[in-house]
Every structure is written in C-alpha cells, then in structure tokens.
Design goal:
heterodimer, A: 353 residues, alpha+beta, four-stranded mixed sheet, three-stranded antiparallel sheet, B: 387 residues, 8 strands, globular
Chain lengths: 353, 387
C-alpha cells in the first residue's frame, strides 16, 4: 500500500511542465485565441522529441513501455498549461487501446508511428462525440457499443465544430467510407469501448486537476497584488474563504483521481465507479476553481485581456468531454445504490481477502 | 511503479486478526451515549477491554501500551473497528491529541507516567483551551499559572471542554509569563480534574447531556513537572496538538464509510417514494466518504515516506466535517416524518440518525471553526497576506 509517486514519475512531469512553459505559455494561447494558430505543428514536434506520445507504447514499438500511473501526472500537466494538442487522447487513450489488438497487422504497423508522433489520431466515442483533432491528422479511432473502427483520415467525412475553447480543434465524423471493416466487434469491441472511456474519462479528470490548480494559482497571485480599501484583496476573509474552499476540493479530488488510475485498465463495476467518481470530483473542483477565480478577479476576470479565460474555458470543455456530469453521476448512483456494489470501510480498495 | 494500492499478505492477516477480536468482544447492545455519566462509565469499561486485547493505541511503541504498528495498520484497525460498530473512543482527546503531543514534546518521565494509562483507558483526558473570551481567538486567553517554587498556582476559567464533566485529567494552556500578550508567554500544562482548587461544571449540549464542561481554577496547585515543553512554548505545542486534532487520527474515514453504507441502505428502503434528487445526495455521500478514505491513505503514505502534515490538516477538517453534515442531512430528509422521533419513541427505528445529525452540527465548529481553518489554508498553504 503506497500512494506516493516515484522520483522518476515526478521528474518526467516536471520536465513536461518546463517544456509546456516554453511552448504553451499564456502568450502562445493568446495568439491562438487571436486566430494565429501557427505553432500547432511546432508544438507537436516538441512533444514528440520528448517522447511523450510513446509513454504507454511498448518499447518494441519505440515507446517507453510505462503504465497508466506514469501517465496521470503528464495528463495533469497538459491540463495545467491548457495544451491545445490532443497528447492525452493519442498517447493516453488511443495507444493503450490499440495495444490490445496488435494481432491486426494494420494496428501493429501503426503503433510505432503513433508512439513517435508521426501518425496522428483522433478518438470519438459515444461519450466523446467531438474529437479534439491533432495537426495533420492521419487516422480516426471510432467506436460504438458494437464495433471499433480504425480508419484513415481520408476515409471519414467530418464536420468542424468550433469550441468555446480556442485551444480545442473539434471535429465530428459525419460519415465513414461505406463498407469499412471494423477493427473489432462483439465482446472485444465492448471491452475496448469500456476501456477507451475509462482512460478518456480518467485522463480528462487529471487534466481538470491541472487546470483547476492553474486557476487557483492565478487567482492567488492576483489577490496578492490587487489592492482595494488600501489593502491587498487577498487579506480579506471573503476572498480567502473562496480560495481555501477551492484548495479543499482540489486536494480531495486529487486523491480520487490518483487512486482511480489503478482501475483504468480493468473492467467491471468497481472500475466504472472509481473512474466516474474521479471525473466528477475533478470536474467539480475545476468548476469551483473557475467560478471562484472569476469572482476574485472581478470585472478583470470577465475580460479578454486577462489570461484566466483560457483556463476557465478548458475547464468548461473538459467537464463535458469523455462522459458529462449526468453520465458519470448516473453511473455512480446506479452502482452505489444498487445491490451488488462492495460498500463499507473495508472496501476502500479491491481486496483478495 | 509506485501508487501501489494493494494490501500485503501481512496486512490482510492483521485485518483478519482485528476482525476476529472485534467479533468476539464488541458489545452486542450499543452503549449509552458517552456524553452521559452512565454512558461514560460504560465507555471507560470498554477502553479497559480494548487495552486487555492490546488494542488501546496500536501505533504507539510497546513500552507505552502500543504495538508499534504502522499508519496503514492503524487505518486497517479503524476500518475493522467501525465495521464492527465498536463504541466511540471516550479517550479520544488523550489518545489522538495529547498522546502524539507527548510523544513529540514530553520528557521520558512524562511519557512513562502518562502514556500507558492513556492507552489503557485508566485515565481519560479532556482539553482545556477555550475561555469565555478566547474561542476562535485562542491567543486572547487569560487563565494564569504563577510559579511558586516547584509548583504552578492556577487561576482562571476554561469552557467548552469536551468530556471534562467526567474525565480525570485535562491538558490546558495557561499564561505563565506575567504581562505577556497573545501567543507569547503561554505554557502547556497537564492538570488533574479531581483536585483541590479545580471545580468542574457540566454544560448540557443541545441533546441534553453534559457533553462539555466549564472548569474553574481557584488557586489549584500542580507540580511544575506537569508542564509539557519549555515555559513559554505553549502556543507552539498547542498548534502541534491542533494539527493532530485536524490531521490524520481524530476522525477516521471508516466512521464516515460506515455512515455512508447505512445511508445507502436507508435509500434502498425509501427509494420507491423518495425524491429522486436524494439519490444524488446519497451517491455524493458515498463519494465523499471514499474520497476522504483515499486521501487519508495518501497522507499516511506521505508520512511513512518521511513527509509531514502541516496546514493540510485544515483541508482535512473542513472536508470531513462538511461531508458528515451533508450525509446526515440527507438521512434526515430520507426519514421524512420519522426523522424527528426521539430515541424510545415507538416508531423510532434507528435513533442513531438523529443523534448523528445533532453531532454532525458540531463538526464545523469544534477543533477550530471551519472559518478559522479557511483562514489558515489561505495564509499558510496559499500564501495570502494576513488580514
């Protein structure tokens, strides 16, 4: 029983944070919001140089061969900087899913390309209808309850769906090439689809933690320097209590997200409940962080000039991605209020007793 | 790979051992409330039973009545303890607050004198900090301890001391330096409650029982050896105690997980006619209890890896007190017209919900109000300026 991350895991997250400060600064996001999205390919290249697309890929495919626990802090960093590119979807969701079907030659050939970032994939799922699409998209991974499809980008007719978050380039597949053969069907497809959602939801939750912490940080810094009535506004209890409440929510959401990582590769009610709980807790924390941040900033927080809105919009976007509030809340309710779910103080973790 | 959330075989064996002992020893009928005189005596007896099984305070070293168990073992013990519906710990102020404080600041003599009798339940402790004019503003306290040779002469008035009505000892903060102000000149002193010059008067709580008391010190004399730490170090030591109080031990996650389980059962019983919105409140209660448990394991891991718990304790205190309140409010809503029925009413099927609800209302107040906790988080964790 150990809930701590290793030094290596923390160092890798730290290295990504440093890179993000360079390639995904507030200035870079501002350029994007002003319609000058010229750096997407450059950012993708830098992420690829760090090997981030291959964290969960097999070493034989040129990846690092690491596990979900190694990825969760990276997803958090992607949230903290509001990274526009779908690193999380490609490296954290698509790659581990495709590793389950390497018997398909097309998949075996694609995995090294995905791990290096040469191939770029977008993922749609019944609970994630709008895919965040990488620059120079090459493939789609699409699924429903019956079948999973891997398609070349040219084989899918898409509709662009602009997001309130200019950092997300959303597309929705409108039609597939007729007669496309599924990658998997039946039970295999059902399991793949469930695990796609587990990882999609969990790593989205991790991003929500990161973006929530970013908003808390921005708000604290603002409250220290903004003066009213002759004092920094952060010295008033009304402001302190808003931000302290965010810190409480964030602390406990963090524990839930980190614990749920152990479940993303598994199937069954325990995993579903853990992942849905993580998604809800992190989205709640990010929502409260956003509302509190705008309140602490006053009118400044409602302006285009202040960076806050980049992160606020990411928080709103993540709340509905990979299963919205209703989906995950109903999932937890149905499981917990149902008859068969393991409840009680000896059931915090899965046990073999 | 870290974040390894599995119990070892040893830990699982330990769980089985605790479970078997609890099954054999937990009283079949619930004890009377520990806030009443008769209930207090019953709970004192239970502490002796626990101690006879060497379960008094398992994380302490054997020489002080413990087993030298790890924090993870402690959490397992607590899970089985609450799962078995074992009685509340009447000596919680001793074992959870003063005990760890003594461990950190006590002399070898003080540890040997006080800890074993604390673990065995022979001496039950209360806390004497608040005064009529010093509540949230604890540093405004006025009670004095004046040095006279090898003794301190105590004068003053403490109030809202939980369990002091029936306890044996009290750990107090007195002003030992004449003319000192605020946090300076305070000392942490251990005082017997049945002692010349110490007068205890129970105060009835909203449930009618004397769950706390006021204590009058009228030239009571205690040895200087009863002072913990240096003269003038009282505030520093008290803040460490407060950290223990809000930190890992006072409110075990298991307590809330049992309550959440009972709430789910209550929901199932009422589901047909209940407001569907209450289903989400029930699920939220389970999620919050689970989140509290997970974060407690996370904190325990951090401490076992050499970390410390500081202002994070305030995050904890806010979270458990609010989750407890929300959980019990949901239960009261589900119970509908029966919610108001007092224990003993013919239609009162489970008096623990009303008792638990009333108790949960105190959570955001005791151990430092949640407003004070939010100030601490803002200033010490987030770095906002003092007001």
């Amino acid at each position: 029983m150990d809930f701590t991350f290793t030094e290596e895991q923390q160092m890798m997250a730290g290295a990504f944070r440093d890179l993000a400060a360079d390639i995904c600064s507030p200035e870079a996001l501002r350029a994007l919001y002003d319609g000058q999205d010229t750096q997407a390919e450059a950012r993708w290249q830098r992420l690829a140089e760090m090997g981030l697309f291959g964290v969960l890929a097999a070493e034989s495919d040129g990846g690092m061969g690491l596990g979900d626990t190694d990825f969760v802090l990276l997803a958090e960093e992607a949230g903290r900087c509001a990274l526009p590119e779908p690193l999380v979807e490609q490296a954290g969701v698509a790659v581990p899913a495709l590793r389950e079907v390497t018997a398909v030659p097309e998949v075996a050939a694609l995995l090294p390309q995905l791990a290096s970032g040469v191939a770029r994939i977008a993922v749609v799922h019944p609970n994630n209808p709008y895919a965040n699409v990488p620059p120079a998209l090459t493939h789609w991974l699409a699924c429903d309850a019956e079948a999973v499809y891997l398609l070349e980008a040219g084989a899918v007719e898409v509709v662009a769906e602009p997001s309130v978050d200019a950092g997300r380039r959303l597309q929705r597949p409108a039609a597939m090439v007729p007669g496309a053969a599924p990658l998997a069907g039946g039970e295999v497809a059902r399991e793949l689809t469930e695990r796609l959602l587990n990882r999609g939801a969990l790593f989205t939750a991790a991003q929500s933690l990161g973006v929530a912490e970013r908003m808390l940080h921005i708000s604290v810094e603002y409250a220290k320097q903004r003066h009213q009535f002759g004092k920094p506004i952060g010295s008033y209890q009304a402001i302190k209590h808003h931000l302290a409440t965010v810190a409480v929510k964030l602390e406990f959401a963090r524990a839930v997200v980190y614990a749920a990582v152990a479940h993303v590769g598994a199937l069954g009610s325990r995993s579903l409940a853990a992942v849905s709980h993580a998604k809800l807790a992190a989205a709640d924390a990010a929502d409260l962080a956003a509302r509190s941040a705008i309140q602490v900033h006053g009118a400044m927080g409602y302006s285009w000039e202040v960076d806050l809105h980049f992160y606020m919009k990411r928080a709103w976007a993540l709340a509905g991605a990979w299963g919205d509030h209703s989906f995950h809340a109903r999932c937890v309710q149905a499981l917990v209020c149902g008859e068969a779910f393991p409840l009680g103080p000896d059931q915090t973790f899965e046990r073999t007793a | 790979m870290a974040v390894e959330l599995q119990f070892t075989p040893e830990q699982q064996r330990f769980r089985a051992e605790v479970r078997a002992w609890m099954q054999a020893h937990v009283p079949a009928t619930p004890l009377k409330t520990l806030e009443s005189e008769a209930g207090f005596a019953q709970h004192r007896q239970w502490e002796r039973t626990l101690a006879a099984g060497n379960w008094g305070m398992i994380t302490w070293p054997a020489q002080y009545g413990g087993r030298g168990a790890t924090l993870i073992d402690w959490l397992i013990f607590e899970e089985e303890y609450y799962r078995a519906n074992a009685p509340l710990r009447v000596n919680q102020n001793g074992i959870f607050l003063l005990g760890p404080t003594l461990m950190e600041f006590g002399t070898p003599e003080q540890k040997a004198r006080f800890l074993p009798k604390m673990a065995s339940g022979e001496e039950i402790w209360a806390q004497g900090w608040s005064e009529p004019q010093a509540g949230s503003d604890l540093a405004a306290l006025r009670a004095t301890a004046v040095r006279d040779g090898d003794t301190y002469v105590l004068r003053g008035h403490k109030i809202w001391s939980s369990r002091a009505a029936f306890a044996d000892w009290c750990f107090c903060i007195f002003r030992t330096e004449e003319g000192s102000e605020r946090h300076r000149g305070l000392s942490f002193i251990l005082v017997p409650l049945r002692h010349p010059g110490v007068r205890v008067r129970g105060i009835r709580q909203i449930h009618g029982e004397p769950g706390f008391a006021e204590i009058f010190f009228e030239d009571a004399r205690v040895p200087v050896a009863n002072r913990l730490g240096e003269a003038g170090a009282g505030w520093h030591i008290a803040m460490a105690t407060a950290g223990f109080e809000r930190g890992l031990m006072l409110r075990s996650p298991a307590r809330f997980q049992v309550a959440a389980l009972k709430l789910v059962q209550l929901w199932r019983h009422h589901a047909e006619k209940a407001d569907p919105a209450l289903a989400s409140a029930v699920a939220q209660a389970w999620m919050d209890a689970q989140a509290y448990a997970l974060n407690t394991y996370r904190t325990a891991s951090r401490l076992m890896a050499g970390g410390s718990i500081g202002v994070e304790a305030s995050l904890n205190k806010i979270f458990w007190s609010e989750l407890d309140l929300n959980l019990h409010r949901t239960a009261m809503s589900l119970m509908g017209a029966r919610a108001e029925l007092a224990p003993g009413a013919p239609d009162c099927t489970d008096p623990s919900w009303l008792e638990g609800f009333i108790f949960s209302l105190a959570g955001p107040v005791y151990a430092g109000t949640n407003e004070i906790q939010r100030n601490l988080i803002a200033e010490r964790l987030l770095g906002l300026p003092r007001g």
